[in-house]
Prior knowledge:
single chain, TIM Barrel, binds 6-O-phosphono-beta-D-glucopyranose
Amino acid sequence: xxxxxxxxxxxxxxxxxxxxxxxxxxxxxxxxxxxxxxxxxxxxxxxxxxxxxxxxxxxxxxxxxxxxxxxxxxxxxxxxxxxxxxxxxxxxxxxxxxxxxxxxxxxxxxxxxxxxxxxxxxxxxxxxxxxxxxxxxxxxxxxxxxxxxxxxxxxxxxxxxxxxxxxxxxxxxxxxxxxxxxxxxxxxxxxxxxxxxxxxxxxxxxxxxxxxxxxxxxxxxxxxxxxxxxxxxxxxxxxxxxxxxxxxxxxxxxxxxxxxxxxxxxxxxxxxxxxxxxxxxxxxxxxxxxxxxxxxxxxxxxxxxxxxxxxxxxxxxxxxxxxxxxxxxxxxxxxxxxxxxxxxxxxxxxxxxxxxxxxxxxxxxxxxxxxxxxxxxxxxxxxxxxxxxxxxxxxxxxxxxxxxxxxxxxxxxxxxxxxxxxxxxxxxxxxxxxxxxxxxxxxxxxxxxxxxxxxxxxxxxxxxxxxxxxxxxxxxxxxxxxxxxxxxxxxxx
Length: 493
Ligand code: BG6
């Protein structure tokens, strides 16, 4: 069986505004939750900068979720002598023409990017949008159109205007649903005719552990209340989008690591089933349009008695039903194992003795991607869109700045082959694949630059020093060939 893909398959890359764009105060952009995060590394995790009501500067690990170490009235503050990766990122803001040309050269026909909410509504509460912000994304889309690359827009990638976090406690408040809908309508008014595929939220299921919701003191109930409000917001966006743009297609993005039981001991199997349901809770609700029967069981793991404790409006049920997603999209980087007695959010999982790992300890498991595609489609019979995959690695450029990244080629060719097998052998309908960070960008979990995913090397270090020069790596020429042959080149592996 060949690995050549259907002729309408979408090939591309994915980015997020605060990891890629920079220009954080340009043309009227307001501050967002990620603008207060400094860089970190494996030993010293990234932290937030805040100030307490008595004027003391504090550096909590997490300010907007699990924030037990943040005093009640502490507020975010940009502090001198700290490096904030999102402020300049790798400056797509000024390099978009060059970057899109590089993407076009690789043969991309789709580009996933997120819009910075605070570039459109600086505090989230203005009556009218910031025209300069709209202009920037308008220019990006025009540039994409020049090369027949279609946009895949993430409406909200893990962030919101800081004002909404401070004033309303982020997604804990229904007020934020209203403000999100104002923002969404502005996006549809301005870009709706030029964009078919939309994602309402990035990795929404990460709320169970670390997902940024702009909520300060996130106990279980705060997190799952925020999740409910986001479900409603997503469904409302889908309903409005379908009305304003009948051909539009909506997904929301889930962080999917395949989870395997550590052994065939029934207790481990059962624990793993519950572990998987922690993710299904999000996918089932949004993909099927109603909370699953096991919802109370999941909530109980987070100290909440039942769904009845979540505040809902009388018409929420109807909204969830009408605002079901059109496709299911997810990120896939690795697999984990789980066993009886593990914590409920064991994000890294325990090491799998059968797998090698990346320098960041992520288990390399291409077959896990095929397994995940099958598992999702078996459950929710809607097309799949793989919107993030890739390998974070340390690249060592030679004197000309060229990187011979054979490890990345190996990772991607194995994962793309597994994807092609899921499509061609298992018959899973898959709209496309967007590789994470096609041009090097900043890591989400650590804020480092040295954890690189790209086909194109960007000259910049962990502290933001460098020329920002873009140089194609070996993998750039390899992926170009794979896309040119629409996957057939994978048969050569
Ligand atoms: C996903 C996020 O979690 O994984 C991206 O949607 C992120 O924003 C990506 O960058 C890879 O994670 P990291 O921590 O290696 O950047």
